């Protein structure tokens, strides 16, 4: 059996990664799936989380937000609604998004708040801060490593 697979992470507008990987952790609805070469074929809906993969002797990470993933024995294709490499994350923008979401969540009686939407916005912001924080050597700015509902 091959000891690697091709990993592609694409969004509607960008190619985020095309790499030869030996393993990957992919956020899907309800959790993460671990992928090794020769994995059983599957199709899954993406969650909101940190996608990590091993390429050569390096572990790489990016955000992955919504969309679908197709896993084949020698190829993994992530079609994400949004995804960013750590170095492309605009940290102040993510902080503002997190602050906006937290303010909305702080008003539980506000009838105008769409709670699911705010929670997804918060999860997106937190995962962006987490991925950016790791790459910049700072403490993780958020702890939301869980895959949650899609964006
Ligand atoms: P915001 O409220 O700041 O727009 P959002 O969570 O609503 O954040 P999305 O709808 O998830 O944004 O993404 C829209 C587009 O903007 C996507 O292409 C995404 O990659 C990009 N994007 C969103 N936030 C950031 C960020 N902090 N850094 C880099 N790109 C971002």
Task: Summarize the structure in short.
With 151 residues, the protein is of the alpha+beta class.
Any chance you could write out the topology, listing elements then pairs?
Elements: E1 5-10, E2 15-21, E3 23-28, E4 31-35, E5 42-45, E6 48-55, E7 58-71, E8 75-82, H1 91-105, H2 115-135
Parallel strand pairs: 1-8
Antiparallel strand pairs: 1-2, 3-4, 3-6, 5-7, 6-7, 7-8
Helix pairs in contact: 1-2
The site of adenosine-5'-triphosphate has 13 residues, from α1 and α2.
Strand content: 35-45%
Q: Provide mean pLDDT, rounded.
A: 91
Any idea what the shape is?
Answer: elongated
Q: Total number of helical segments?
A: 2
CATH 4th-level superfamily of the largest domain: F0F1 ATP synthase delta/epsilon subunit, N-terminal
- First and last CA, distance: 36 Å
Describe the sheet with the most strands.
Answer: 8 strands, mixed
Instruction: Give the number of domains.
Output: 2
What top-tier CATH class of the largest domain fits best?
Mainly Beta
Structural class: alpha+beta
Number of strands: 8
Radius of gyration from the CA trace?
16 Å
Small-molecule components bound: adenosine-5'-triphosphate
CATH fold naming of the largest domain = ATP Synthase, domain 1
Helix content: 10-25%
- The ordered string of helix (H) and strand (E) elements is EEEEEEEEHH
CATH architecture of the largest domain: Sandwich
- Return residue spans where pLDDT drops below 50 for at least 5 consecutive residues: 138-151
């Amino acid at each position: 059996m091959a000891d690697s697979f091709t990993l592609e992470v694409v969004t509607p507008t960008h190619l985020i990664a095309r790499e030869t990987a030996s393993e990957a952790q992919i956020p899907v609805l309800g959790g993460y799936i671990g992928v090794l070469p020769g994995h059983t074929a599957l199709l899954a809906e993406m969650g909101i989380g940190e996608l990590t993969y091993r390429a050569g002797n390096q572990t790489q990470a990016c955000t992955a937000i919504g969309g679908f993933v197709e896993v084949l024995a020698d190829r993994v294709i992530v079609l994400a609604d949004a995804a960013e490499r750590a170095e492309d994350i605009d940290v102040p923008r993510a902080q503002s998004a997190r602050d906006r979401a937290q303010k909305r969540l702080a008003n539980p009686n506000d009838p105008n708040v769409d709670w699911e939407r705010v929670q997804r916005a918060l999860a997106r912001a937190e995962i962006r801060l987490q991925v950016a924080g790791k790459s910049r050597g700072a403490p993780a700015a958020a702890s939301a490593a869980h895959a949650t509902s899609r964006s």
